[in-house]
Amino acid sequence: PSRLTTPASCGLRLRKSNPLAAEGSSLGLTAPRATCARTAWTRQEGQRRPQLAHTRGSPLHIRCLAGVVATGARGHRRARPPPRDLAPVLFRASVPGPQSPAPTLLAIIRKALSEEKRVSTKTSAADLVTETDHLVEGLIISELQERFPSHRFIAEESAAAGAKCVLTPSPTWIVDPIDGTCNFVHRFPTVAVSIGFAVDQELEFGVIYHCTEERLYTGRRGRGAFCNGQRLQVSGETDISKALVLTEIGPRRDPATLKLFLSNMERLLHAKAHGVRVIGSSTLALCHLASGAADAYYQFGLHCWDLAAATVIIREAGGIVMDTSGGPLDLMSCRVVAAGTREMAMLIAQALQTINYGRDDEK
């Protein structure tokens, strides 16, 4: 069975057979042979360890991954906390209970998902934000700032409020508190939390948590990509006529933008792609690409917080992430093509007409 890392503070030893042994964290929980899904974690045979149940409101995967996230800045020791700090780096309380200082973020999102929401708009009537977006972003940033006061942050709702999106060489957390806010508002259960980390303007690792399906996607530069501890591998498809392509509409709805969006979709359908899908969450669409469930993804109008974590995950799963021009990815350009193979990525890029959304670092 595959295994998932857990903080060294748990006092559990690393077994050499662990596929994530290179992460350098201690291991104590063994995952069953199932695919990325709801998982019960049990103690290993012959070892006296308490049984931990992965229950509703208890994102154990996130807690176990915290060690990977917090130590992801390869070669930059200032970004690496001591082991005892790994578990609470991203979330105030991974397992709710009497000793929890606050509800888990997962519990907050799930509770809000089933309730009526106070909704506001940002750049357009289709660009939505809720109180939960602000709450979750605030909790994530406050926790990280407490642990890493010298680090910088780029976050969706802070940017909407006027904060500058400038990626400097400093250690930088790139946060999307709720990706798929329109889904969230309508109780459509495709919603994720996305956290990426960059040092020296290079993406080092990413974490994306599918809130309703309890899937944790992770990627660390040079260390692979995983979903709930199982290694991810992109599709090897090179023929666009056999491809399932994913995209998102973007926030603008003016006639010129809609005409270009529909034209791009029509071009791919004329190229006889098996299908073009829109699921309402760019981060989760990119995770489907990383898992091999889709063959390509493109979008104009996404932002750096939509893309940062997913880029690492796709690359570590063997995929390509690049600019729609066919050149290297520019994280601030608000456009992307990603695919399992370079051949597929180039075919998609060549079929697209550019939709200009400007740049994140110029807004």
UniProtKB/TrEMBL annotation:
One of its GO terms (biological process) is response to lithium ion. It is an enzyme of class 3 (hydrolase). One of its GO terms (molecular function) is metal ion binding. Its EC number is 3.1.3.25. One of its GO terms (cellular component) is cytoplasm. Mg(2+) binds at E156, D176, I178, D179, D306. Belongs to the inositol monophosphatase superfamily. This is Inositol-1-monophosphatase. It comes from Ailuropoda melanoleuca (Giant panda). The gene is IMPA2.
